[in-house]
Amino acid sequence: MKVIDEKGRLFGKINVIDFLVISFLLSLTPIFYFGYKLSTSKQLEQQALQAQQALQAQQALQAQQASQAQQIQNKESLQAQHVPKKSLEVEILCNFIEVPAYLLPYVKAGEKEIGTKGEVLGEIIAVVGKPEPFKYSYNLGNDEYGELKKIWIKDPELKQIAVRLKLKVEVRGADLYYNNQDIKLGSAFLFKTNLYKYKTIPI
């Protein structure tokens, strides 16, 4: 059998020109493949580089914001250190609560709380009224109108007594602080004499 017959076919089956065209196209396949791989690889590298640059920019921005916040905080702290503390002397009506009965004779005018430097922080000016049994409150839940109901039970041993106190307080904004304790209606703070720490509630 002739390799190329009289009609120009290879082995009598395929035209020589067609064969050459097909061979040429097949030879281009690796070129296209490696070109595609190279292009894709460059795109991935570029995307990774852009992502890294975006991350670095974000981190730099966060660091700058943190630095600015720290500078503001330092400035405010420095300003606060140079602002003189404003102190007042006030008289407040309070209840000493949960007082053991044996201490009642020592709750009297003239009893003082002394600071660490020997200064007078507070003083009992007067005892107002008579001691009463201290009462604990317990919630019973809401009634049919949605109002919270409570029951009050007297303690058989602990007492409460009203006193008028003269306190040296510090002004912080719109609030008063006694010995670093916030003074609020219904909120307890401690008044300490040389005998006892009285749980104290402004009324």
- Count of beta strands: 10
How would you state the average pLDDT, rounded? 85
Sheet-strand content, in percent, reads 35-45%
How many H/I helical runs? Answer: 1
The residue ranges in which pLDDT falls below 50 over 5 or more consecutive positions are none
Question: Describe the biggest sheet?
Answer: 8 strands, antiparallel
Judged by helices, strands and strand pairing, the structural class is alpha+beta
Our measurement of the CA-to-CA distance between the termini, rounded to an integer number of angstroms, reads: 123 Å
**Form type:** elongated
The rounded Rg comes to: 44 Å
Secondary-structure element string: EEHEEEEEEEE
Helix content estimate: 25-40%
SSE map:
Elements lengths: L8 E2 L3 E2 H67 L3 E15 L11 E3 L5 E23 L5 E25 L2 E4 L2 E2 L6 E4 L4 E6 L1
Antiparallel strand pairs: 1-2, 3-6, 3-10, 4-5, 5-6, 6-7, 7-8, 9-10
